[in-house]
Amino acid sequence: MHLVILGNGITGVTCALTVRRLRPEARITLVSSESAHHYSRTALMYVYMGHLRAQDIKPYADWFWAENRLALVHATATALNTAENLLVLDNGTTLAYDQLLLATGSESKLFGWPGQHLAGVQGLYGLPDLEAMTRDTHGIGRGVVVGGGLIGVELAEMLHTRGIEPLVLVREARYWASVLPPEEANLVDRQFQENHVAVRYGTELREILGDADGRVRAVVTTAGEEIACQWVGLATGVTPNLTLANTSNVETAQGILVDEFLRTNVPNVFAAGDCAQHRQPGTGEVPIEQLWYTGRMQGETVAHTICGQPMHYRRGIWFNSAKFFNLEYQTYGQAPAGPTPGLTSFYWEHPNSRTAVRVYFQSEAPHAVVGFNALGLRLRHAVCEQWIAQRTPVATVMSHLGAANFDPEFFPQHEKAIVADFNRQFPGQSVALKQRKGLFARL
């Protein structure tokens, strides 16, 4: 079997390694023009900030690929002929396959703003974007970031660490309004304030202005305000990369359409990761998942099917994590940004406005817990997942809250204050704290 994988990100590499384990004799070729090696996308910002070197974000040593007989063709696939099982590459060659995995990832989403293709205007998704940002922000005074999601705050922090003034434009009335409730968004906004990063809420981009050399010189908002800048970061989301799929008869919609086995409509052609769109997502799941861990899971799942061991893909209970400057964030399960029929939430915030937790639970008895938000403290993934999966009553969760505490041993313990506030907000529960973390649980 010759397996060809388009893309050497987490999905493609996970698939390659899993296939190598399941079918040691298989020939495996990865095709990518982005880089000559696999790297961690989530660590790109730390290279820019000087915390890591470029070589530090390679999960595997250079000898690893030859040792595991994983070949890399450093090229771009420009056409796919599924009738002949053939890829056309931009280096003038073709590549035949027996099985093909499309793991082409995402590309930055653009909205047709005038000037969006000027020099110094970009998103941040891959290594070429990091290289462009490093080059185009050298020696500048101000950068404008458009968008208020995870990438938006990353770009603002990156600029800030290099002494470049960031200005963030956020369309919504608060930070990441589609994901974070107002209280959590306020904690993130406090991080912007403490780090002297200006944010304009309720502000949209209308156009980007260029100078005589074709480089950005300013942005104009929909209110007509012109803001001088020398660089613009577009953090308005990503969209599945369908460039290659659209040269073929592989069916696409927003993404490359796949079934529960990550198979496309074409025999021996699969898709996984950011570029895949599930025809029938599981209950509570979304059709397109663009996260590192779901990409890894899909890569492993599709490898089994490619090797003749068909495996359904199911993400399981949702989770995500991030860091907003100095504020860590975790979310598990159902964690809606606003009031949701049938759900109630309990929110506790420390007086320092740097630590908070929200627990979502069903409004009707037995008040089963369905989700968590945590900011400034760490919760154990396995514990939260178990509570959600077992539909644990909120009173039980609160009484054993220490079991989920993943902070270092001698960090401040907040369980007592959290439970006291829960009893104040929900007097009918009368929860007694039975389990605190670590050392304190045994005293």
UniProtKB/TrEMBL annotation:
Gene3D superfamilies for this protein: FAD/NAD(P)-binding domain
Coiled coil: none
Alphabetized Pfam families for the sequence: Pyr_redox_2
Listed cofactors: FAD
Stretches assigned to the FAD/NAD(P)-binding domain: 2-295
Domain of life: Bacteria
SUPFAM superfamilies: FAD/NAD(P)-binding domain
UniProt keywords, alphabetically: FAD, Flavoprotein
InterPro entries assigned: FAD-bd_OxRdtase (IPR050260), FAD/NAD-bd_sf (IPR036188), FAD/NAD-binding_dom (IPR023753)
Family: Belongs to the FAD-dependent oxidoreductase family.
UniProt name for this protein: NAD(P)/FAD-dependent oxidoreductase
UniProt source species: Hymenobacter segetis
